[in-house]
Input
Amino acid sequence: MDINELLATRTSHIKASAIRELLKIATNPGMISLGGGLPSPESFPLDLIMDLTDKVIKKYGSKALQYDLTEGFIPLRKALIDYCKTFGVDAELDNVYITSGSQGFLDSLGKLLISPGDYVAVEGPTYLAALQAFNAYEAKYVQMQTDDEGLIPESLEEVLNNYKVKFVYTVPTFQNPSGKTIKLKRREQIAEIVKRHDVLLIEDDPYSALRYSGDQLPTIKSMAPENVVYVSTFSKIFAPGLRLGFFVAPESFGRWMVIVKQGVDLNTCTFTQAIASEYLIGGHLPNQMAKTISLYKPKLETMYTALKEYFPADFKCVKPDGGMFLWIEGPKGLDMEVVSKIAITKMVGFVPGKFFYPNPLDGIETARLNFSCVTHEQIKFAMKTIAEACSEVTSKKS
Amino acid sequence: MDINELLATRTSHIKASAIRELLKIATNPGMISLGGGLPSPESFPLDLIMDLTDKVIKKYGSKALQYDLTEGFIPLRKALIDYCKTFGVDAELDNVYITSGSQGFLDSLGKLLISPGDYVAVEGPTYLAALQAFNAYEAKYVQMQTDDEGLIPESLEEVLNNYKVKFVYTVPTFQNPSGKTIKLKRREQIAEIVKRHDVLLIEDDPYSALRYSGDQLPTIKSMAPENVVYVSTFSKIFAPGLRLGFFVAPESFGRWMVIVKQGVDLNTCTFTQAIASEYLIGGHLPNQMAKTISLYKPKLETMYTALKEYFPADFKCVKPDGGMFLWIEGPKGLDMEVVSKIAITKMVGFVPGKFFYPNPLDGIETARLNFSCVTHEQIKFAMKTIAEACSEVTSKKS
Output
């Protein structure tokens, strides 16, 4: 039996994630990887788990081990209503839904809305796993322009004038991969544009709790609640291995997502939902975030300092106010995939930025560097190694 | 923004699960429900959870809270290799994969193989949530015939001669909904047929550990390992709220499923996978199954006895050797959906059998009755009530 003869036509759009393949290389012994997007294991509240589990068993008993509502575990959804208030998102119970990671949201979103050939408006670069989720439903992409202040509202407007898009997808704060943040004025403009065009915008916000400098910005959701679906995850505020995401949406949207999700996984893991409820209810989040920020913020400083020290002046980089990534842009023509291959031979991994663009010809000279999951010493060594690999490629060319 | 204007074309094939809607009614106070498919909360090893969690934290530490391989948590996959041996399924690590419930398997399977309009061969009746998963990929169904001994091999052969099916889907042991089991001789014939036609058969086996009488039967997988993908779940051997399923497949199939699953949920909940590993490694399964069987077996007896006592002789029922369901077939023309509506007014819920057929005109006079999640007293009352509702409908007609 040859599986290749049985594949659905959509599989021609589905590829193994380049990053997941690179992560496999990164697990080779001795390899220093700036390639992943993993939170630091040190940031996980391992010491809380027994206590939270004990509370879950006493409070919810066998309910925590049973099938549950597709919508999500009600105590968790209620706790999220309060959490969302802290960043200006108003919600009732029927606006808050749990998904199996934010990936679960992206997959169900694609399934619900994307017919083959439908357009989705995305930033370039954008979150790779979102493209991966939408690719399976045979989406086409319209790329919106960005600069140092994130998505350019005029570009969004132009896209909406010229394409019938199913939805607009953006990661407005400390974007993966670029680390960029859409500034306040632009958020207001974007909210106004999506309201005027009456389109759906997906605000994917996994990183905003990881802010190291600058002031918290209001969500686009808070400015256009009827047109925006706000999505986030417990992966960066608790632990990714729980596989919990959530979204806040108009009820009509949520109801449809629930119908789709029934066929995908019936319900998200009840047990870890109950643990996450107790984590929020117990008020552990602020301490945990303070600890995580104290871990990541100095690593960003180390990486940025190493960049200034080791890389030539023609490398561009906007220092992000938070998140887990530094995004660098080499001189025109420098192929970061070639640099990456040299770096791997020197036991350093990172992800060439071109993988994050819907158009495979874009971003050749860019790279995403993760700092959350490596030590200060590893960051310095890796940055020096990548800089040397860049010189090697540049000198070969000239 | 009107969500209905944005829906993908495939949504015309996606409906809310009739059962999930019925389960909502079943949660009304005072309602006795034979409608669900939930394991009894009494069957969950609640007293083990703290101990297993403690072991997980000590043994795996933060690894249990981190992102993990899409393929599944390696200690769990290794433990499953041994578990599979107990029912004659041979596997290496690259044959065993974890999914987010068996529903996660069914969804990824549909995504991988079903192009709109592709045929899938299913039993009539069949597992509703499988239809739901495949519907989203716009499958068409060819119904294979069954009798008291389960799927009729000649019917499978006829279907394969007349249709190009992407795969054959069967629940051979204590099927949900019919409780029927494919007998040994037929398993051998089915294995021979799928090998000869070189087609893919999905053997979905959530219930075989719940055997109350008769001898264990070999899996079809053990008879045609290259053509069969074996699927099962922890929902009936541990707890459904962990949302863990698994499958055993040729590596070429597994590799493709992993690529698809990356876009769906990155990986299944690491934490509950680690707990399930310790559950298997700790040897808790046999005790737990003995306890569960001692709980369910007498309930099946009570239900079957009540059936004989309260229902007229023209009702057909094959007493199953295991599982969680009794399947009854009333006299031709009796509409079990009408009966169900009357029963609900008397505070008893069950699922009319017609929902389990791909053809909506089939199975009008059938019903699925669940006995795992109700008490003996509730079973007796419910059976009496349903029998009375049947008489009511019959007398109105005559």
